[in-house]
C-alpha cells in the first residue's frame, strides 16, 4: 500500500506554522497581547498607556488633570508567498512538500516579519555605543544599554538584546570564558548566546542600519537664536544652524542638546545623562538653518516630565549616531523590553469558490492558505498570506546599540 499522503489545506497550513514560528527571532520577543481586539473593531485602534501622577504634599486637595497617553497601531502589512505546482506534485508526502515548498516559503515569511519589527529601530530615540565600532565586550554593550534602560525606569524582566552577526560573534568571543556548559551548548545549537545582565541575547541578520543620507560633518552644532526661545514644554520642533550647502540630514539620527538632561519617569529626578532625541522629519535648509522635528517631545513639568530644562537658544548639539554618511548608516543593534514594541497579527478571511482554503493559528501567528485550479495548464496556484501591523509602544523601554 502506498505510503504517500494526500495534502489537505489543514495539513499544509499547520506545517507552515511550525516552520514559521521556529524562524522568528525579534518578532517572538515583542508585545502580542492586543491581537484579538482587531477582530471586532477593524484595521486600527488606539492603545491606552498607563497614566502618571505627581504626589502632592499637605491636607489640601490638589486635583490633577488627566491626559491619557496612547499609541495608534494599524494592521497594514499584508505579506504573501505564492507558487504553483502540478497535479503530479500532489502525490508528494508532507515531508517532501515541506522541504521543497514550505521551508523556503516560511523562512522568507519569517524573515519579513522580523525585518518589519526591527525596522522600528530607527524611530527609537535612546542610543548608546559608538557608530561603526563593533561592541565586543560587556562594558561596550550590556553595561551601556542596561544603565540607560534602568534610568528610564524600565523593568528587569523580558529584556532582549538583538545583535547583528558581527556584534553577536564579537561579544560571544569576549565572553567565551564565562560560558558554563549548558549556556555554551545553547549558543552553539540555538543561536542564543546567553542571558547577560537580565538581557536574553540573540543574533538576527535583520538588525537594521541607520537611514542612509545623513552627512553633515559635525557642522550642525547649535540651536538657532531666532526660534529656540519659543521652544517650551510639549514642543518637538526646533531649528538648528551651522550647515553647509552640501550637508544632508537623515530621519533616524540621534542627538543631545546641552543642558537638557533625562529624568527618571516616576521620580522626575535628574539622571545626569543628556536626553536623547531622534529626528523624525526635516526641512530643506535655508541660509544654513535646518528645521527639524524630533521625538520624544520636550516636557518640562507635570507627571509626564521627561527633561530637566527647556531647550535654550545657542545650546550645543552632539550627534550620537554620527555625522558622516558612513556613521549615520551604520548598524543599529537593538535592546528592548517586551512592551517597548508591538506586533499584531490577525486572521484573514477565507475566500469561497476556490479549490481549497484553510486558516490556522499557532502562538498568535496566523496564516491563510488558498489553492485554486488552473484547468488550462493543469496546475494549482497556491498562496500563503499573513496580515499584521507593528508599532513602537514605549520608546523609553528600548535602546539602540551602535556598532
Write a short abstract of this structure.
Helix content is 19%, strand content 30%. It is α+β, with helices and mostly antiparallel strands.
Q: Name the helix and strand elements from N-terminus to C-terminus, one letter apiece.
A: HHEEEHEHEHHEEEEEEEEEEHEEEEEE
**How much helix, percentage-wise, in residues?**
10-25%
Specify the structural class: alpha+beta
Strands side by side in the biggest sheet: 4-21-16-5-7-6
Strand content: 25-35%
Terminus-to-terminus distance: 59 Å
Total number of strands:
21
Unreliable spans: 1-6, 180-191
CA-based shape? globular
Specify the biggest β-sheet: 6 strands, mixed
Radius of gyration: 25 Å
Number of helices: 7
Kindly state the mean pLDDT as a whole number?
Answer: 81
Structural account:
- The strands form 5 sheets. A 6-stranded mixed sheet has the order 4-21-16-5-7-6. The protein has a 6-stranded antiparallel sheet with strand order 8-9-14-13-10-15, with no helix packed on it.
- The protein has 7 helices and 21 strands.
- With 403 residues, the chain is an alpha+beta fold.
- Helix 1 crosses helix 3 (94-118).
- The chain starts with 8 loop residues before the first helix and ends with a strand.
Tell me the layout of helices and strands:
Blueprint: H1 9-23, H2 38-41, E1 44-48, E2 70-74, E3 77-86, H3 94-118, E4 127-128, H4 142-151, E5 159-163, H5 165-174, H6 181-190, E6 192-196, E7 199-203, E8 222-223, E9 235-241, E10 254-257, E11 261-263, E12 270-274, E13 277-282, E14 289-298, E15 317-319, H7 325-328, E16 332-337, E17 341-346, E18 356-362, E19 365-371, E20 379-392, E21 398-402
Parallel strand pairs: 4-21, 5-7
Antiparallel strand pairs: 1-2, 3-20, 5-16, 6-7, 8-9, 9-14, 10-13, 10-15, 11-12, 13-14, 16-21, 17-20, 18-19, 19-20
Amino acid at each position: 500500500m502506498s505510503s504517500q499522503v494526500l495534502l489537505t489545506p489543514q495539513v499544509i497550513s499547520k506545517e507552515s506554522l511550525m516552520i514559521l514560528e521556529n524562524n522568528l527571532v525579534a518578532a517572538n520577543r515583542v508585545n502580542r497581547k492586543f491581537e484579538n481586539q482587531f477582530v471586532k473593531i477593524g484595521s486600527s485602534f488606539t492603545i491606552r498607556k498607563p497614566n502618571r501622577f505627581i504626589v502632592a504634599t499637605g491636607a489640601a486637595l490638589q486635583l490633577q488633570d488627566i491626559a491619557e497617553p496612547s499609541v495608534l497601531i494599524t494592521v497594514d502589512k499584508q505579506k504573501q508567498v505564492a507558487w504553483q505546482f502540478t497535479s503530479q506534485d500532489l502525490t508528494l508526502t508532507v515531508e517532501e512538500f515541506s522541504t521543497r515548498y514550505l521551508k523556503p516559503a516560511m523562512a522568507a515569511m519569517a524573515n519579513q516579519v522580523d525585518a518589519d519589527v526591527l525596522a522600528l529601530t530607527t524611530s527609537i530615540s535612546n542610543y548608546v555605543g559608538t557608530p561603526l565600532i563593533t561592541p565586543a565586550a560587556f562594558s561596550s554593550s550590556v553595561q551601556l544599554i542596561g544603565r540607560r534602560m534602568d534610568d528610564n525606569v524600565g523593568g528587569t524582566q523580558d529584556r532582549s538584546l538583538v545583535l547583528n552577526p558581527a556584534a553577536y560573534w564579537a561579544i560571544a568571543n569576549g565572553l567565551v570564558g564565562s560560558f558554563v556548559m549548558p549556556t555554551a551548548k545553547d549558543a552553539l545549537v540555538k543561536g542564543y548566546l546567553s542571558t547577560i545582565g537580565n538581557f536574553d541575547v540573540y543574533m538576527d541578520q535583520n538588525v537594521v542600519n541607520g537611514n542612509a543620507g545623513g552627512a553633515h560633518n559635525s557642522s550642525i552644532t547649535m540651536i538657532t537664536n531666532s526660534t529656540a526661545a519659543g521652544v517650551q514644554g510639549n514642543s518637538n520642533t526646533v531649528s538648528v544652524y551651522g550647515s553647509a550647502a552640501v550637508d544632508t540630514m537623515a530621519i533616524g539620527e540621534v542627538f543631545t542638546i546641552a543642558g537638557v538632561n533625562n529624568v527618571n519617569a516616576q521620580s522626575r529626578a535628574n539622571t545626569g545623562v543628556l536626553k536623547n532625541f531622534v529626528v523624525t522629519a526635516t526641512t530643506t535648509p535655508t541660509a544654513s538653518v535646518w528645521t527639524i522635528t524630533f521625538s520624544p517631545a520636550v516636557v518640562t513639568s507635570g507627571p509626564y516630565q521627561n527633561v530637566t530644562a527647556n531647550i535654550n537658544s545657542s545650546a550645543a548639539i552632539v550627534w550620537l549616531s554620527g555625522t558622516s554618511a558612513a556613521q549615520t548608516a551604520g548598524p543599529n543593534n537593538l535592546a528592548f523590553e517586551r512592551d517597548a514594541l508591538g506586533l499584531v497579527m490577525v486572521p484573514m478571511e477565507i475566500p469561497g469558490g476556490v479549490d481549497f482554503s484553510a486558516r490556522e493559528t499557532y502562538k498568535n501567528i496566523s496564516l491563510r492558505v488558498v489553492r485554486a485550479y488552473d484547468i488550462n495548464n493543469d496546475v494549482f496556484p497556491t498562496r500563503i498570506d499573513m496580515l499584521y501591523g507593528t508599532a513602537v509602544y514605549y520608546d523609553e523601554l528600548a535602546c539602540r546599540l551602535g556598532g
